[in-house]
Automatic annotation (TrEMBL):
The keyword Transmembrane belongs to this UniProt entry's keyword annotation: yes
SUPFAM superfamilies named in the record: Kelch motif
Transmembrane segments: 6-27
Top-rank taxon, per record: Bacteria
UniProt KW keywords: Membrane, Transmembrane, Transmembrane helix
Organism encoding this protein: Planctopirus limnophila (strain ATCC 43296 / DSM 3776 / IFAM 1008 / Mu 290)
Stated name of the protein: Kelch repeat-containing protein
Length: 557
């Protein structure tokens, strides 16, 4: 803001400077304008939500807080499939309105009809404020709240190439002609512009820091607030944008070169018992066509302490799209499909309800009580002695006849006999997903939806309450979640995706941070822990190189 001494100096400079003074006098009029800003608990130093009535997302004159006590504060979890806002109670603090987040909230927002204004003989107008918070670190950003009742005018940032892009929305739709102003961060002057026909405005590069973004829209709509009439509505919407440095991506050191698989396979079962990695079944043929002769029936084993070669230690039925887990020293396989056709024949794919335990002593699969429904393209995980199966479908001749499963099941293999029992139905229909146990809960990651294609969405099942909730979506586009593999090791949950990126769930469970990059990207593979500090990546395929025989081992730093 201009100082008094600076203005007086201008007045002494004569006629030419009068024009300069007129230009500068306009600055305080803008600078003295106040807007509502919300800084959420993930952005503030004290872990609280703060609402400021200020020129930017920072404290100003505390006396002004009295003018905004009628504001409506809200919170939301942007990791939810459908974002819903909830009211958030606040108290008047020393220099802000203060609130405390609910445990799963990620963002906050504010709404206030400030009052009917009339200045300088202008027709009266309703002054409306709204705003939200946003943080961008490893993610691309760009997810909208999309609730016109609390945020009719919304501006959201996202990474775009080496810079950032702002997207403006009115009533949930991209909005053209929206005035945008950006301050804060390392900017020495405001960045201003107007959104294009797609509702977008390129910002270029921005350094890490907190930015104050505001947008404006005028509606020529008369109305009444209380007993005061107005002729139009002026809406100012803000976004407090925190740009954080992405987590450092470390290239892991290959700890050893392990033997290749005898042939490249996808959609197989994998598990580890002691020092031995096992894989069973899978598909060795070309993409998009299945035949019985291309299905594996072998149980392969590799001792990572003496990794001379993969050995065939047993056989069973041909299966693809199955799950396999280890419980103690025992292997269990579930589901999968059989291709009941030859290479030159029309596909006849049938899901199975297999459930079997590998008896290493007699080198045979021992049949156990079958799954309640035929199921393939599923995954399984273990908590204690209980196996859980989630996802998949029932193929009964081909993909068009597939029934997507609405159910999920558990089986305590220590029981005699073991019995499959239902758990709460998942709030999704997905296949080609991964399932992992982490801190006593089950994480269902990515996959293909029955409608909408591949997804990066994450769902969490809590056995203690037999209930489902939403988790943080994987970064990137939907294909990143297709055919992924996940596992928890040493209290950390990792997931390996199609692009070769390996992500770790943050300590607070709010986001995925990239920690590794595979030398050979793959999907429909298996990522398995061979001890408390190493992960092995087996099989799979990539769009570019096809099926992978290589086996990569990485050290967890």
């Amino acid at each position: 803001m201009l100082t008094r001494s600076y203005l007086f100096a201008g007045l002494r400079s004569g006629g030419i400077v009068i024009a300069t003074l007129a230009m500068n006098l306009a600055v305080p009029l803008i600078a003295q304008a106040h807007f509502l800003w919300v800084v959420d608990a993930n952005q503030s130093a004290d872990g609280k939500v703060h609402v400021y009535f200020s020129e930017e997302a920072a404290p100003d004159n505390p006396a002004l807080l009295e003018k905004i006590l009628g504001a409506k504060l809200w919170e939301a979890n942007l990791h939810d499939d459908a974002v819903k806002v909830s009211p958030l109670k606040f108290e008047k603090g020393e220099n802000s309105l203060e609130a405390t987040f609910s445990p799963k909230s990620t963002n906050a927002g504010v709404f206030l009809d400030y009052g009917v204004m009339s200045k300088g003989g202008a027709e009266p107008y309703l002054l409306r404020y709204c705003g939200r918070s946003q943080t961008i670190a490893n993610r691309k950003g760009g997810k909208v709240i999309g609730d016109a009742a609390v945020l009719p005018l919304e501006v959201v940032a996202e990474r775009s190439g080496d810079g950032f892009l702002l997207r403006t929305f009115w009533q949930g739709q991209p909005a053209e002609g929206i005035e945008v102003t950006v301050d804060g961060g390392d900017l020495s002057a405001s960045k201003e512009g107007v959104s294009n026909a797609q509702g977008e405005l390129a910002l270029g590069t921005l350094a890490n820091g907190l930015y104050s973004i505001r947008v404006k829209k005028v509606l020529e709509e008369p109305g009444k607030l209380g007993d005061k009439e107005y002729k139009s509505i002026r809406i100012y919407s803000t976004t407090s944008l925190l740009i954080k440095p992405p987590a450092e991506v470390t290239q892991p050191a290959v700890s050893k070169a392990l033997p290749e698989l005898p042939r490249g396979i996808t959609s197989f079962g994998g598990a580890v018992v002691g020092d031995v990695v096992y894989v069973y079944g899978g598909h060795a043929g070309g993409a998009h066509h299945y035949a019985k002769e291309d299905q594996s029936r072998e149980l392969l084993a590799l001792n990572v302490k003496q990794p001379s070669e993969w050995k065939v230690v047993g056989e069973g039925p041909e299966r693809t799209g199955l799950a396999m887990v280890a419980v103690g020293n025992d292997l269990y396989r579930m589901g999968g499909f059989i291709a009941d056709n030859g290479k030159e024949e029309k596909e006849v794919l049938k899901s199975t309800s297999d459930f079997a335990r590998w008896d290493a002593a007699i080198k045979q699969w021992i049949e156990l009580p079958a799954l309640p429904e035929p199921r393939s393209s599923l995954d399984a995980a273990v908590i204690g002695k209980t196996i859980y199966v989630v996802g998949g479908w029932n193929l009964n001749g081909g993909g068009k006849e597939a029934q997507w499963h609405e159910t999920a099941w558990k089986c305590d293999v220590s029981a005699n006999p073991p019995v499959w029992q239902p758990i709460a139905n998942p709030p999704f229909l997905r296949r080609a997903l991964s399932l992992a146990e982490h801190q006593g809960k089950l994480y269902v990651i990515g996959g293909m939806k029955n409608q909408g294609g591949p997804t990066t969405e994450v769902a969490i099942y809590d056995p203690a309450t037999n209930s489902w909730s939403s988790g943080p979506a994987l970064p990137g586009e939907g294909m990143e979640g297709f055919g992924n593999s996940s596992f928890a090791i040493n209290q950390h949950l990792f997931v390996s995706v199609m692009s070769g990126k390996v992500y770790k769930l943050s300590a607070d469970g709010s986001q995925w941070d990239q920690v590794y990059q595979l030398e050979k990207p793959r999907f429909f593979h298996r990522m398995l822990p061979i001890n408390q500090h190493q992960l092995v990546f087996v099989g799979g395929a990539s769009m570019e190189a096809g099926k992978a025989k290589t086996t990569e081992v990485f050290d967890i730093k």
